[in-house]
Every structure is written in C-alpha cells, then in structure tokens.
Amino acid sequence: MSKVKAVKGVGWDVSAIGNAIWGGAKLADVLELVGISKLTSVSPLGGKHVEFVSVDKCKEEKGGPYKGSIPLIQATNSDAEVLLAYEMNGEPLNRDHGYPLRVIVPGVIGARSVKWLSSINIIENECQGFFMQRDYKMFPPTVNWENIDWSTRRPQMDFPVQSVICSLEEENTVKPGKIVVHGYAASGGGRGIERVDVSFDGGKTWVEAIRYQKSGIPYVADDTSSDKWAWVLFKAEADVSHTTEIVAKAVDISANVQPENVEVIWNLRGIFNTSWHRVHIHVQHPDL
Q1: Which tens digit of pLDDT belongs to each residue from 231-275?
Q2: How far apart are CA 181 and CA 165, in angstroms?
Q3: How far is CA 238 from CA 180, 205, 207, in A?
Q4: Angle subtended at Cα 278 by Cα 2 and Cα 196, rounded to the nearest 5 degrees
Q5: Cα(206)–Cα(20) distance, rounded to whole angstroms?
Q6: CA 215 – CA 91 distance, rounded (Å)
C-alpha cells in the first residue's frame, strides 16, 4: 500500500500467515463449567463479550496489558472452535507462541488470539483496549491522520479472502517454457475457498488452479473432508514465451472475491491489501 501512499504499520511484504495444529480446551466448554450455556449471546449478569487479558505489557496501553475481546455468542458456539490452547503441533506451547496458555480464535485476525493469558472476563461492552479501539480498523481511502475518528469503525474480526503466489518473487527472469505457480488462499470466518483463478497474461485470460489441503485428498470447499480454518494450497501451470505478469485471485464460498487493485482499498493503517497478487516474469531468450 505504501507504493500508493505512505501508511503507518509494519511492513509485512506480501503477507503474514502460518498454519498449525492447536491443542487445548474449547472455550465454550470452559464457560459452560462456570454457568454460561452454549450459544449464549447475553450472560445472566448482562455480559455480551469475552475479554482476554495478557500478562504482556505494552506501551500502547501505557504500560497496561495487551487485551482483546470477541462476542459471547462466538465464544459459546462450539462450532466456532475458539480454543484455550496449551499445545501447538503436538508439543507444549513455547514461550514465543504464548506459553503456558493462549486463546486461538480461528478465522479471525491474529490480534484477537491473545497470548500469555492472565485472565478471561465476561464484560458488557467490547474490550476498550488500544488494539480493539485505536488499531486494526478498516477506513476508506479518504480518511487520513488529520481527520480520523476511530469510533466510527468497528474492530476488525474476520479476515477477507486472500491468495498469494509463493513460488515466485515479485520480479523473475526465466527461460521460455513451462511456469508452475504454487501458493495459498484463505478466507475468514471458516469460509472455504471455492476457486482460485490464475492468469498468465496479466488478467486477460484465466485458468482455474488445482486446490488441495492434504496429500491425496481432493479439496472440496465446505465439505467435511476439508479444514475450514486452514489455508488452501493451489497449483497452476502454463507455457510462457514472452515477458508477462502472472496474477492470482481467490473466491470463497460466499462469492467474496479479491479486488483488482490496491488503490480502491488503500487505508491509512495499511491493513488488508487483498488485491490481486501480481508477479512479473521477464523471459530471457537464448542468443541465436
């Protein structure tokens, strides 16, 4: 986004994502043990949100703890699979990933999956912490740091549909012939990936990529054989004979599709550049 106009944030390059197997206790089960039933939107004492408070202190909270919240109805929904995690990839959490306990809120931006938990609170209104109220909000391109009003936007929760080409750099020099494109696609809220389209001519024509998650098992969006919280890998190939631009875009099961360009979604915080991912291929022909 900074190539369009400077933004304030961390330079994540094309994307920041990971894929892991988490182990722990479902938050819905833990809340049921303290008297809050499954699929509850308002607790007996009027609570509508679950707040997670970290041991970690941060300057944005003026030395107070990092914290965030999710709606109670999401926390008490077993199908949302919010987890109080103490294991990662079959081993105890290490310190960097939140030892001894963290929350995992699948399908939601990582800022809500609070590490190093010290307390869990049932509160009436959403968390008023810095990273809920004054960060990770999506503003239109017309808003700048002089006219921003944080209260006009909700905290970002589900992340939008995204796809990334991982097997190529932003600029590539290759010989004429077959180009194989590998990458991943993901969408928030447990929405599966219905399609990944790849263009080998800058978006003029498209081919549908092969999608998969597990070796030898065909991926079917929203099927019991698929993992609705995990990334979906894709592969496409074509012969390339001249300098071109390769483009990828994904569509999820709700027909959400990535925007064509970054200009229309530019925002001062620099979040959610989900525009078509483009890489440039310079074809170098052997000297005759």
Answers
A1: 999 999 999 999 999 999 999 999 999 999 999 999 999 999 999
A2: 7
A3: 7, 12, 9
A4: 125
A5: 31
A6: 23
